[in-house]
Amino acid sequence: MRILFAFVLSTFIAFFANAQNPSFKTLESFDAIFARAKKENKPIFFEAYLPNCSHCMAYDVTLKNPKIKQFLDKNVLAYQLDISKRENGMFLRKQKVYVPSTPSFIVLGPDGKPWDIQNMGDELNSVNGILATLQKAIDPQKRDEATLKKYLQGAREFNEMIGLANFTRMTLDTVQNIEIVQQLAEALPKDKYETELGFLLIRKVMLDNNNPLFDHFINNLANYRKSNDSVTVRQAAENTLMSTLFSSRARKFSPDRIAGIKYGLQKIGLTDAQIANRSIVLEVLIDLDKDQLDVATNRIKSYYQGKEIPAKEKEFWCKWLSRKSDPKNPCPLP
C-alpha cells in the first residue's frame, strides 16, 4: 500500500510540475520569441524556475490567478524557463543574465536587452506582490534599466543603488557592480555595518573584497555570527573572496592585494594548503605576465613540496611555462 501511495504521489507531483501554466505561452525557439516581441513591440517576461524548487511550485499556484494572466496577456510575452535544461542556461548566458536563485523574474526588452531582474522571495508571493513587481519591471521610469541610466547621469539615491547592485550582478556587469557597491559601502554609516542591511549587501550583491564594508566584516566575523547563522557568514565571506580571486582582473593584483585575500580565507578557517590550492594558478600566471619564469617555476616546485608532480598537472603547468621558456627546453619542471 505504501509503495502504491508513493508511486501515485510522485506521479501526481510530476504531472503538475510539468503541466503548462495557463498564464504563460508555450515556450518556442528564442529566435521566434524575439521576432514576435519585435512584431508586437512587447517586452519578454521569463519566470526562471527549477522543477524541484518548492518556492517555484508555490509561485506557480499564484501565477495561475486570472488577474495575473490578464496582466501578462496585455503587457508582455510571458514564458516559463526551466533553467535545469542546458539550452535555457546557455540562452541566459548569451543574454548576459545570471540567476543565483529561483524563482527569478527576468524582463527583456523587445531587442533582448535586460530591463529588470528580480529574485522573488516568499514575501512577494501574492497576487499584489507579483503584479507590483511586474508593473515596476515594465515601467519606463522605474525598471532597473531606467534606474541605471539615471545613476550613470549622476543620481545617487541609496535604495535605488541597492537595486542596481543586484541588477548589475545579475547582468554580469562586474565593473559597474564594484563601483556601485563601493559607493554603497562608503555611504552606509559604520554603525550600520553589522545590521541586517550591511550583511545583506555582503551576502547578496558584493563581488569584490576591496571596500570598507568587507574589511570590517572579515575582521569582525564573530559579531556577525551573533545575529546570523555561522555557515551563512562563512559562505558570504568565501563567495566574495573567491569571486575576487577568480575574476579576470585578478591578474593585475599586487602581491599585497593577493595577501589580503589569503588573509580573508585564513580568517574563515581555511588551512594554508587549502589557500594555496586556490591561489597557485593565479600567482603563477602573474609571475609569467611579468616574465618571471624562474619565480613561477620555483613557486610550482614549492607548491608540490618536492613530491612528484602528477602527469596531468605537470602537462597543465608545462603548457603555461613553455610560453616563456627556451624552445629547446620548453618545460623547466623536472
Automatic annotation (TrEMBL):
UniProt keyword list: Signal
Q: Where is the signal peptide?
A: 1-19
What's the protein here called? Answer: Thioredoxin family protein
Domain named Thioredoxin: residues: 6-139
Organism, scientific name: Aquirufa echingensis
